[in-house]
Amino acid sequence: MVGASLAVGTALPVTAAVAADRAPTQRAAATAEEPSGTPVLHPTPGTYLDGTVTVTAQPVLAGDPVRELAVDGRPLAGATATPATSRLLFDVGSNSIEKRYGSYVLVNGTRLDLDRDMVSERVALDVPNDLLVQGENAVRFVVGAVPTSCGSNYDDFDLTEVSLELLGEVADGSGNRFTYQFGDGSCGTNTSRVLTADLTFTVAQDPAATTGLAAELDTTTLENGAHTLTATTASGQTATSGVTVNNSAPGAPALIPADGELLNGARTVLATPPAGGDTPTGIEVDGAPLTTTATLGAGSSQFVFTVGSNSIEARYTNHLLVNGQRIDLVDRDYVSETVRVDVPNAYLAAGRNTVRFVTGTYPTACGDNRDDFAISGIGLVPSHGTATPVDVASSYSLGDGDCGSSATKPREAVLTFDVVPAADAPAPGLRAELDTVALADGEHVLSSSTAAGATARRTVTTDNTGPAVASSTPAAGAELATATSLAVELTDASGVLEGPAVTLDGEVVEAGALVGPGLEPGAHVLVVTATDVLGNASTHEIAFTSLGVPDVPTDLAPATGTTGVEGSVELGARVSAPGGGDVTATFARADVRAPVVAAQGETAAVPTDVLHVEGESPADVDALVPGDGATLDAAPAADVAFQRFEIPAEGDVAGQTVRWDGVIDPQRLATLHVWDGAAWEPLVSARGAVEGPTSLTATLSARHATQGTVHVLVTGTDPFADDIDDGVGTEEPTSFADRDAYDFSMVHFTDTQYLSEGAVEQETAEERAVWAKTYTDLVQWVVDNADERGIEYVAHTGDIVENYTRTPADDAMAAQVRGEYEFSSSAQRLLDDAGIPNGVLAGNHDNLTGADNGPGALYNAYYGPDRYEALSAGWQDASYGGPWREGDNQNHYDLFTAGGLDFVAVYLSYGVTDEEAAWADGVLEQFADRNAILLAHDYLAPSTNPDGRGAPFSTPDGRLLYSKVVEPNPNVFLVLSGHEHGVGINVKRDVGTPGNGVVELLADYQFYEVTAEEAGLTEIGGYAPDQGLRLGSSYLRLLQFDVDRSELVVDTYSPWLENFGATEYDDRKRYNGLEDDFTVPVDLTTRTTTLVTDAVALYAPAEEIGSVAVPSGEVARVTWDGLDAGALHAWVVTATSAGGGTAVSPVTTFTTAPVQDGLVVSTTARSQCMAGAAYVAVRATNADTVPVDVTLSTPYGERTVTAVQPGASAYQAFAVRSTQVAAGSAHVAASGAGRAFASDVAFDALACG
């Protein structure tokens, strides 16, 4: 059974083995994982075997070949060595490799076909090691072609990051390019792509040295039943596979479905006699006979047809239904040929037969499109006998036109044939229709016999119901007295595909949500829905009863930290319960135990299974007592900040509470862990509060005490998560961030080519002026608002002009291109004249799609190094770093300082080469101490999510830049790009190195459309008022940096439209507004985690103080008498509803005033063991306001500590000089400012070792 858990939030789909002709087959059986290093053994566990099967084992470790195959401990004879398998890996972009083109790879001259469609994935192509050699290996990619009306058209696709991985080795492919662009455009229109590419990989090991084994196993020599296959390597690593042998009696029919298949709905059962065998007498399920019809028996016939020039394409999955049995036409494309399809005789019968020829579908931009083709010359050719067509036409034209444009073309052809078997035809078989719905889910036995008694049996599993609920919290029938977290686990034979989805009393509830608070007393229902892999849906109701779980008590008084309480104190708490009525509040004292040992430090990762954290330093425990006003401060940490505490405990700690109070940076995560004897168990977490302290409270179990000590670890981590709640989305964006809320800003805009084009090519000066104004308004706004908005830098990520993707065809087009460059240059010069540091790169429209390079590139005539070297002299706190090559500014870098931080901005134009990426990597390494921004034209593709999150890489440059530039350089914290039309937002953590965060932003509005009426072009340009014009790139992004919080506030604004947020202008209506107005974390060098502990203590419930019942929502009050003066006191309150539901408050502490002329000193004494010896540890904490002298006295020694400051402690562990200590007491005396304190503090007996 395969399950899914709501608490985990993932479903585990399992593909069932349902192909009728698959052998051997595998049933859904869970098996233990083999240990690492064991070979890969086939057949796999749970497989049914019959006849002769091939047993194989592949090695997984270099130098550890498979030496033996065995069944039930007996070696298999005749095992032969087989080559190990390596993998050729490569990333395919969104422009897919299509199987129909027939592209392939040559590995040292041997062809490996790319035999499936591959799109937006990392492909792992198996390469047998006998194709490889030690040393240099040649790999050639070859692009396939298909005939079209314009001639042979080659497939177009991009590959990146090609690698060859062997066992224990990644072959050296450092001489290969990172990106390869294959194809020819549309029938040769793109000459920059290639049709072949040669790569070289150097292999250090001998690929032939590590081999597997293969052997043929004749299962008829084994008894039917369970057997164990094993494979053993030279080092002794052994893999095992439990299989089941099920051979039919000689002469028995072949029975389909096969052993182990998973069935649902209506299934056909076929019993076919072997060659020369007898006709089966029937088919049974679990011994009950099924209604049968005769088939043509063994062998196969042929279905014949001729297809015209409009081919049948394999990718559409066209298929035949022969008397309901499906045959897919997916082995290849069929074009202008006669096709013969093998049809098993078991699918056919004497008499009337129906063949449905069904057109398949393929997903396209317009939806599922059916294949279009014409067939003729249709016939059925039986292996023994004749087939006469019945009303079969001479030809059929099938399909749907272009995505359903043809309503008249049939989607399928229904063809009828009358079959007459020949006199010498083999013995007929049988066919039965099995309605598996009529059977109970689970295992069933199909059987078929001959008259002579030769019987075949197959064990199958039926599954016609959706997933079942394996467990739930709350459970069915439960009475819910306290709040509990929702959890639902499912199980299903075929695996859970979707779910569980849960509602509580009709409202959606998520995994982990608290159930109980707010629920009225009485009956409630959880409804769980789910779907399994076979499509079976299920709905389950889980009824439970709420006893009326109260809210956690609030308005606790006196509040934690209150001091100077005199005499008796009135405790108060507001208690509420759903359903109203009286609520009983029970107040109880809590014993307080503070840490006796503390340590702190910084570590690369959250500790898991080591009690003492590597690199920790001892810390003072004096500041950890609740209410003392002192704190223990950890140093700011770039990785994980932690503080570790040891708190003495007595007896069973189950039900006791640990509470931590402190401060952690907003948006960081504080987690309280407790040692369970073997590992740190995280019990509770919370994000840092924007203002004020953060508290963590956890209830302990018995396992959380180790030798009388509770070990507590508090970690501060940086989740670097895109979940900052800044109120965005609650209203329409109408302004930038408050200027006082951030330190500086920068501007990003991109892909302004349509604005430049319109400013030059439109027919009238008036219309050209409108297009020009959209661009100049943008840059002029930057100039006018630079001081007010704190704009320190401006970046344009390319496509400055529109018409320079290919060499101009004539002088007029050349003039147009130069005109666009001249206009954009003049617009950008507004920034130059204002002295605002800025940079520009070349997009594919600016550099002949990456082909116009070097000092002579047209881009450099307008945006060359000379321009920026001259400007740099006038920039403040910024400088032009220089071009990547002399005279070529398409790749360059700038340096600037803002908000007290140093930055480097690295620009890479479209069509990045490995050499250019290496240059950028060198710059970033040179300035590793600066916060780095990567500016690229091509990096992300638009997100398909409404909020703009989750954008994939664009091709050809995206993955190359990420792998070669971003990942290796931890100072890169931000990537800005354009090129693809839309928005993308990625917040990534652990980029390259653990803890390193990168934000990636795409903001390209060039296709966004403004109506002619809003643009003012109805009169000037003669456009219809509602005609959309591509003026969206009048939008800019203002990136506003809060250095202290390491956060980035992004606003999107068009000065020309005077409008925030471009969502409404997206011609595809993809987004919801959250993509243009958001706040994200940024990993600046200032981004650290600071952890400050005010108090940490263990609280043990003690005697009841008092109990009172009040109406729900009222404050309950009791009086606590007999308080010791000058001491810390702790208490809790439990609210109990009329129905019996309970909720417990956090622990609250306060300090009483000392007696007149007395001091406030808190004391502890405990027996403890260290290295097998007994000690008595005594602590006195000065909770007063003046320094005091303290004397600690025990039967085993005495210590005096002078001038103990307020909040500090005097401490001593006195050696008993024995392995045991008897119960006794210590005496603590203190004096200061003319006042005194004295107290006897008891300690328990203890035996050590």
Automatic annotation (TrEMBL):
Keywords from the named record: Signal
Its signal peptide is 1-19
Query: Region (Disordered) spans which residues?
Result: 450-472
Q: What is this protein called?
A: Calcineurin-like phosphoesterase domain-containing protein
Q: Where along the chain is composition biased (Low complexity)? A: 450-462
Residues in Calcineurin-like phosphoesterase domain copies: 747-981
Domain of life assignment? Bacteria
Species of origin: Cellulosimicrobium cellulans F16
- What Pfam families does its record include? Metallophos
Q: Name one GO molecular function term.
A: hydrolase activity
